[in-house]
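input
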Amino acid sequence: MAARGRPSYGEVADALTERIRTGLLRAGERMPTQEQLAAEFGVERRTVRQALELLRDAGLITVGGKGAPARVSVPSPRDAEETPRTTAAALGPRLIAAFEAPNVRVDAICLTTETLNQALAEPLRRVQAREIATPESVRVRVLVPAHDVRLAFPRPTEGAADDDKVHRHWQVRRDGHGRGLLLSLEALATRGIDVEVTLRTLPFTPPVKLYLLNGAEALFAYYNVHERTERIAGTDTRIFDALGSDSTLFPFESGGGRRDQAFVAQSQTWFDSLWGTLAADVVFDG
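output
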């Protein structure tokens, strides 16, 4: 408790949070005015304002206009689907929404662009079919491992005898999907869209994948490594590998409170730092 037995703003925020979570204050309902809350809790209005700021940052309330009381937040359709899903299921809808912006920007860090290519298919189709407004520009930057990096995965489970074969198999996939990404996005230029697609390479194996959409969303997933068999150069080969499309994707939004906002900003800073320092021009083999 604060001085003179009055509750602190944190305690006021806790009490209001409990009312929202138990339904005493329902979604869409007006919050009591600052004056009413100050009288109820026996505190100054400054304390109430600080408590409401905590609720707003947590996404529990939306602040009204000047003089209007705040309201309890109404979950959006996206909020109802916020149970993390696989990258294959979650990335496509996020990209469709991102392509509704006039200036589209996508940054990605991944092992190959295979999952990104698949997820882009629908928004690109909608743009070509004029089912969504044609964006003015599309900027895509992708970081993938360099062709001469000894990857942590995929790699053979035993010994080094198959290292070159497994690495070559990955490199062919990386290059094929990379070329496919360039071709599919550059086709948008026929619609008069200003398109810029750049692939660069990293000198290490990324342990996570990251997608940054329009500077407002960060979609983050861990690469989970498993042992499996893949047919490579006509031979069944045991390898350690990660299936990126099966990775659980965690979304963070710059409008989702201070923690999400900080994660999005720091993720963008991390990407930009790699892009501007360690990254090198991509080299396609053959």
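quick obs: The chain has a mean pLDDT of 88.
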